[in-house]
């Protein structure tokens, strides 16, 4: 404070003032500028009065004379207060800066230490002393009792996963807390840390779920996964469902074949494992190499046969004469891998005929190898492909053909001399899910099961119909970044703006009263050009405007579309012969009606997306076009999805345009009611699977 006093009271405080008074006055300090308005500034000195006059546009303030002693004293006191406050602020800011520097230095040191440790681990890995992927000789394995080392390495591996982007900071915090809180149990569960990050993350998540007594460990064994191996609707389904299951607190991992067409070295987070495990096939035990990594937050394992590498080193995934051999080998290898890695999942979730052989394999060989509490669910994505083959081929993966070639097991219902792999999956699974957002169980069993009617009828009690969903993290008008304005069922005003933006994008003549009809397609197997043209022409006569978006790699389909373009040379029709992701969002949001090729759309999910965006989905009915194959008098299912879709399934485009024009209130209410429903993966689809899993666990 002495320093402050020296600044405030200089020693020569009166030397610049004439000696006109016997009392020495303190030196008048220079003027101090404050961020106040003119009114405050003029009222700064008590007892002063002022008047305002304008000169050259600037207010001039005339202050009446007051006692110099009072004026100087007041100025000095206020300056002292301002100076003291400024000094305190400077001291506080300096203190905060020092604290921030210390924290930054600490973080930098921790980062350098972590990077150094990671380099050390990588170096040890290359030398063979520590390997997260290779089989480590027993003499080099750390002893089980070295608990501090185990905990330290677990924490370091968690930090490494954060740096690589495999897990979020929030999940890392939860896992670190678990390591610190459950040391006694972790010492036994993680005495062997010779796993890669993907495998270790699966173990950590499973232990975390078990320690909280919530969630299931679900292993999906399949042949596709978006985006790494995608051919049809299966890839989208597995990815969407797996992410939804994990958001509900479950641990999900996916096992697939390692196709040669995949370049996993370029996929972030993937590592090739050098460890080999053997799987039985054709009378021998064959070695396999595994690849592990994280895709969309899901732990994924690819199995690569070494001696039988030709099974999956092909240009495509399906359509080969030895598909049974290829996928029965993979199915057996997946089970061998689970057993050898000591995993004990709650659920095996298999898909289609390609992994249906897991059913008899599981119950005949693997259930007593530590999997006594595991249960099996098969999802059928359609019955048009079942894999019917000679019974002796079952022996390739170790099964007994005579035992299984029976009418109540794998014998085909039509060809008694053959076996049916999909039928085997139905017979040997605890639950069978059939994917349909539209049809009832009876309709599927009686009309859409391609010869498996009697088998499904016998196992009717374990059959359930589950709708598909869609990814509402990408498709939600309330937060869609591709739209010029966001909107929702509660606040739908933005849809009109999207409609205007779409018209401007397509250079339509602005007709605000015209209905906007969108049509998005990719691969269309059959188009009746004449009938479709008739439907569009009828709608054009009612003032509608059309946008067709998409393309096809099939020459016949492309030729049909080109013919349609030439026929419909109308100023209110636009064709964009290339699929565009951003434009597809705007088409769905800006259209009043979306013309759908089918309401059974397990790949694009266009009807569900249209409903979410407040757009009425309309399927071209059989009398108008062969784009859609809806059976007359079809029985709709009892799910929420089927109830909503049934509101629009039998409405023609012409009728929809009339309803929109003449029943605006009813039209708006129908849109709002449908739009407010949640039809995403996280809703009905995931909930029905969770109910099925839990009922199986209670068997």
Automatic annotation (TrEMBL):
Keyword Transferase: yes
Pathway given in the UniProt record: Glycan biosynthesis; starch biosynthesis
Pfam families: Glyco_transf_5
Molecular function in Gene Ontology: alpha-1,4-glucan glucosyltransferase (ADP-glucose donor) activity
Highest taxon, organism lineage: Eukaryota
Catalytic activity: [(1->4)-alpha-D-glucosyl](n) + ADP-alpha-D-glucose = [(1->4)-alpha-D-glucosyl](n+1) + ADP + H(+)
Alphabetical keyword list: Glycosyltransferase, Starch biosynthesis, Transferase
Listed GO biological process terms: starch biosynthetic process
EC number: 2.4.1.21
InterPro entries per the UniProt record, alphabetical: Starch_synth_cat_dom
Domain Starch synthase catalytic span(s) in chain numbering: 217-456
Name this polypeptide is given: starch synthase
